[in-house]
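Query form — protein Alpha glucuronidase N-terminal domain-containing protein

QUESTION: What is the three-dimensional structure of this chain?
INPUT:
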Amino acid sequence: MKDANYKLNLFVLVGLLFISSCMAQQVDIVRDKKAETEIVISSRPSNLERKAALVLQEYIKRITGVPLAILSNPSGTKKHVVYIGNNFYQQRIGKKVGLGNEGFEISVRDGQVYLTGGSGKGLLYGVYELIEKQFGARKYDQGPAWVPRRSSLTLPQDFNLRFEPALRYRESYYPASADAEYLDWHHLHRFEDLWGLWGHSFFKIIPPEDYFQQHPEYFALTNGKRSATQLCLTNPDVQKIAINYFRRAIADNPDAVYWSIAPMDGKGYCTCDRCTKVDQEEGGPQGTLLRFVNRIAAQFPEQNFTTLAYGYTAEAPKITRPLDNVYVLLSTIDATRERGLAVNPTAAPFRRQLNDWSKISSHIFVWDYTTQFTAYINPFPMYDHYQSNIAYMYQNGVKGIFEHGPGHTQADMSAYASYLQAKILWNPELDQAEVEEDFLDGYYGAASKDIKKYLKQLIDARKTSRSTLDIYGNPILSRHGYLSLEKMRLFKELVNNAQKAVAGDPKFISRVKLIALGLEYAALEQSKAYGDHPFGFLNRKASGEWMVNPNWMTRIDEFLDHALRSGAIELAETDGSLEQYRQQWLTLLNKPYLPSLLQGIHPQFKPSFLEDFPANGKTTLNDGLSGTTDYSYNWLLFDSKDVEINFPFPNETMASQIQLNFLLDPAHYLFLPDGIAVESSEDNISYVNIGKYKIDTGLIAEGPICYPVSFDLKQQKGRFLKVKITFSQEFPHWFEGSKHRKPLFAIDEIHADQAD
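ANSWER: The structure tokens for Alpha glucuronidase N-terminal domain-containing protein are given below.
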């Protein structure tokens, strides 16, 4: 019995020694709701050191309920001290802090904790890394951070966490980035904070309203005349004005890190003799741009300047090299998103441009795109490419990335996209799947299982349907691919299941409902193309006439109310406000839907319409659905000189009038045809002209407009009605844009009235 007691006591003693040894191998920050540590900062701390200490104190208190003291010297009453600031490390450890820009290190030495940082906010970033990685808190979006509840917080005795970011500029342009703590927590930047002048800046430097009337020579010579489209970059006076502008701007904003010198978006560059000579030497207008930027940058060697390699300036010049204080901002705008940048054929020009620019400069930034600008909340499943795209750019020498999302409005999976992008921008080589799993479980709670299935099904649907993900696409185009009716039913079922899983929890259900909102938007948009189909907005009477579903406007208003409450204040980059969306629907629903002689007839096309924009195929022109000012909605596009559209009737018929709609949209190279002729035939061999119309192609349009044409027809019986459209395939004289693409014309609803 004594021997048994001896063995038991020995076992207990060994256990206690083991526990004591383990405890000796860790630093107790808080132990059983008691502070074992204090925070020490300099007696004259910097603003960053003070903020770092306060943030650490706040989150330890939120997690444990225990406030740690912030002192300027150790009190001697605590076992451990958290020293914040580089001076303590250098004085007590005897080593310099060798950290790069925005880097940090957290280390435990002899039971004491040292937080150090490189330039910028490295010290603060280290505090947030400690709070997340070691203490378990999460900052999922712009709302309050989630924190676990614990009675104890510890660090291993040999704890060391050190990191220096690979990218010097990191921005994910989503709603969460409007929150200052989200930016610091995820180590992101905002262009508003770094740039004194951002983006397409020419006309901020030399505004046309101030200079054009008196000095047209300061502006681009295009098509033989001076126009306020761009600047004339070889004009010495333009250079002097620009230098004086930056001298004043830099004095007014000395803390700005970068200044942009870049062309306006999308219009003609200067073709005067001086500019043309430089462009010929350099291989394009990127030559005059870079020489202009270099001249200004040379005047301010302590400042950093950026310029855009975008559109007509995307290619690297043959001769000129950017100065050391010039950063080149390339664009991925022409690449589709269904495949990664490293392998996508549409990204081949970007890959070549990146390679060419990298040969002449080590200062390369990229302006990348991760949302659908024409339909922000529409499902846009490029999620599996976030990491590979950022890693590709980093591995090819890129030093900064602007991930262009929706800005301050909601988009598809906004919180998820921003969170993943932020983590990958900080560390391009991390495991995306691990971060993704952690986010989805925390952000959606019990709904995460179905949300994961939903995201997987979206990606699978994109792959199996071989869909194109275009940043200027829309749900109507996608209904032939990953947003087919069959897939939409599946997606809605999964999201409905997710809502049921978190029923009764307002926080989680609101997050799931935001996904449902995107699917409802897709369904509403697709209904514009479905007409009297069960998923359309029209019903057909027994007489054959169409009528609007009487409950449709109620559905629209419910959608808009949910969008407003969810923060989806813009549905598209252009004309996308909620009120504009409502007005678009009112216009569509209030138009008359009259029976047409052509209804139900499948026309023959010679030649056929462009397959990239199939709309509703051969039924597009007589399905009762009129196209809007968006060329991708219900318009058929043609690039041929002459087009014939032939309607075969089952019986002899006579039309009295014809109506057609065309789209004038110069920004997308859509122009009006020259004329229309209508012919009738009994046998499809011999045709008689029964009407014609000449169009005024001199009509100037700044933005897209629908152009209706209506004219009477000579009453002639026949079994075939042929509409012949002539198109010059030439740009109108007033067009001042780039002419690197062929002009097109777009046609929608053709309506014919039955003769009495």
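ADDITIONAL NOTE: The chain has 21 helices and 30 strands.
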